[in-house]
Every structure is written in structure tokens, then in C-alpha cells.
Amino acid sequence: METFKWKVNSTARKEGEKASVAFFTKEVAEKVRNFHQGFDLYRPTPLRVLNHLAKHMGVSGIYVKDESYRFGLNSFKALGGSYAIGRYLAQQLTMNMQDVSFEMLRSPDVKQQIGDITFATATDGNHGRGVAWAAQQLRQQAVVYMPKDSAQIRLDNIKATGARASITDLNYDNTVRYVKQTARENGWVLVQDTSWEGYTDIPTWIMQGYLTMVAEALEQMQEVGADMPTHVFIQVGVGSIAGAVQGLFASLFNEKRPITAIVEPNKADCHYLSSMAEDGKTRHVTGSMDTIMAGLACGEPNPISWGIMRDYSDMFISCPDYVSAKGMRMLGNPLGDDPRVISGESGAVTTGLISFLMKEEILQEARERLQLDEHSRILVFNTEGDTDPENYRRIVWDGAYPVPGIE
Ligand SMILES: Cc1ncc(COP(=O)(O)O)c(C=O)c1O
Fold first, then answer.
1. Is residue 75 within 6 Å of ligand 1 at its C-beta?
2. Is 271 in the pocket of ligand 1 (CB under 6 A)?
3. Strand order in the sheet with 164-167
4. What's the topology of domain 5-76+210-396?
């Protein structure tokens, strides 16, 4: 049965023994943002301040970084794929990243020097669309594989960039294994957002790419006159996004970093299970992982981000699908003059979760352990908009995934 499960992190290593966050510093974030700022389509995505919702929930502030506006692609993911491809091409040109711009990489001269490259990846939608989009922008090729039961519209959006894309009959993690092998056989460059032994550079660059989102959010909180967040809730699939978010917070604020909760669907809660095991090692979820949160349907943690999550997270939470459905309805139907946020299945779960944490008796202990109260300033990331518009409407209009006990 789907239910709330939570675990206070008990395996964080001591100061001095923690995972290094040297790849996720302010300086790296500046370099990455500088690269993204060179794209024609670059605009900081909005930070939405939901004052009425915060009051309703009994907290001081709720801040939603709305990545549905990122590069017209409806999700944050292209930040990672584009930066990793940029870094890879800079390396091919034996140039420093500071001296490389997107415009330069797409110029006919440079394209001629680099030659034709095919970038390959596995995706549940958003990452693959980002890689395919970046390859198209740079006049290169992309091949993308998706897990069984992926939404047709997500496949069509990837194909619309000119990439070769197809849906396999494998789950996400096996699709990753499949592309790893296929890329090797065909001499393609694998741009995967998770790591394994001997494959760490590109996944690290992808995580660094996400720093633009975090750096913008912190700057925007200052612009709206808010102090730094006291709490951050991050939804995870393989965990690369959380590694980047926590890496930058740890490197900027150290002991004063916000309280952080890692959020997953019940059906793919490999980080929660890893935390439950209390030995610091990862646990996997296998099978179909049929959650509505397609972007979070990953059963194997990225080892790079797991090290960071293990040392810097405060709580791991596993959620039923109706939590995300409620978050979608809440963000799409704001209170008072709060701005509306279109949030998809993988984007809305953290907002939905906060409402349950603040209101439900059964979560009182979790709320207290997280020190959530009227002083809390909570930052969440709407990591996708309605990337599957038909399912979005089914949930928001037809009330699919209702909250049990509520008519
Ligand atoms: C919309 C959305 N949110 C969050 C995530 C989780 O990111 P990660 O796999 O890096 O944990 C994904 C991953 O695909 C996603 O598509």
C-alpha cells in the first residue's frame, strides 16, 4: 500500500570525513552560469513567492523556483546536458571552459574542427530532451532511449529536435545499461546523468550544470528581501539534482546550511531504502516502478550524489503518488494573489508533501524532527511543468489520484 515513510538521516559522516563538495562551489557555479548566460534563450527562471500558501500552511515563506520556464523546454534538465556537452567539446578543442561559448561551439569553423559527434543517453523524458536540444543547437546528432511505458508526447518532443529516439521494453536503470553498451559499440559519446566506476566526468559536469538553477534561486531570494532558506525539499530520481543543490549549500554555508529533505515516490524510493539500511551503502529498487512521477522513477542512486546526500541530508521521505497530484492541484490553483505555477508530476511532489507535513497528525513527528514551524522559509524546485499535458489535465481536472479520505 502507498503510504508516507520517513527516516531521519543517521549515517552522515563526521566533519572532515564528509564527501567533498569541491566540484560544487560558488566559483564553479559562476563559471557554469557564465556558460549558460551565453545562450540566446537564457533567462533566469522565475522564483515564485507564495505568501498566501505560506500563511495557510503556518510557515514564514514558500519559495518555488519555477523551472518550467527553462529554455522553453519545460524542465530544469537541459542545464546539465548542455553544460556537459559544452565541457566535452571544450576538452576536444583543448580549451578552458571560460574561453568557450555556446555561440562559438556552434560556429561553422569550430564545427569543422570538431567534426560529427553523436551524443547518446537514456531518459525518462526531460534529460534526453535537454541532451537532444543541446546537440541540435550545436549541429550535432543525438540518440535517445526511453524506458517502457514512457509517454508518447515526451518521445515526440525529443524527436522534434531531430534526434533518433525510441521507447525500449526495459525499466529506467536497464535502459541506462542498454545505452551504455550501444554507445560503446557505435562510438557515441554517452551523456548520462548518473555515474559508475570509470564514468564520472560527464555525470559530474551534468550536476555542475544544475548549479545555475541553485545560484539563481539564492540570488532571487535576496532580491525579494528574503533571508536564506531555513529548509530545502528536493525530489530525486538518481539524485544528481540533490547532489548539486546540497553540494552548493554545503560549500556556501557549511554548518549553517538549510535543513534538507530528500523526497521520492514510494515506487522508486532507493535513497530512502539506502538511508533505512544505515550502513551508508546504496540499496536498489527494481521492476517497473510505475509511479506517476516518471522523472523520479529511477531505482539506483548516482554514487557521486549519494555520497553528498548521505552526509548533508537531514531526512529521506518516500511519498504516495497522490502527494504529487495534490501538489499539482495546489500550485495550479493558488490562494489569493499568489502566482500560479504549472507543475508536472515530478515537479509538484515537494509542495504537496509540505502541505501534508504541516497539516496531518500522522506526520507530526516528522514535522517536529524537521523543525518546521512559523519561522520556516522553505525553498522548493518546480523541476518540470506539464511535460505530459494530457496526464496533467487528467490529474488536475478529473481528480485522478485523489487524496484518500477526501471526497
Ligand atoms: C522533472 C524532474 N524532476 C526531478 C528529477 C530528478 O533528477 P535526478 O534524477 O537528478 O535526481 C528528474 C529526473 O529526470 C526530472 O525529470
1. yes
2. no
3. 164-167, 141-146, 118-122, 189-190
4. Rossmann fold (3.40.50)
| Whether 295 contacts 272, CB under 8 Å | no
Q: Which secondary structure element, helix H or strand E, spans residue 30, and what is its range? A: helix 26-37
Report the nearest-CA residue for atom 14 of ligand 1: 295
How many Å lie between the centroid of ligand 1 and the Cα of residue 241?
7
Active site residue 314: no
Selecting among 77, 193, 267, 388, the annotated active-site residue is 77
Tell me the mean pLDDT per 10 residues along the chain, length 407. 96 96 98 96 98 98 98 98 98 95 94 96 97 96 97 98 98 98 98 98 98 98 97 98 98 97 98 98 97 97 98 98 98 98 98 98 98 98 98 96 82
Q: What is the pTM of this model?
A: 0.98
Could you tell me if the CB of 77 is within 6 A of ligand 1?
yes
φ and ψ of 208, to 5 deg: -60, -35
CATH of 78-199, one of 3.10.180.10, 3.30.565.10, 3.90.1200.10, 3.40.50.1100: 3.40.50.1100
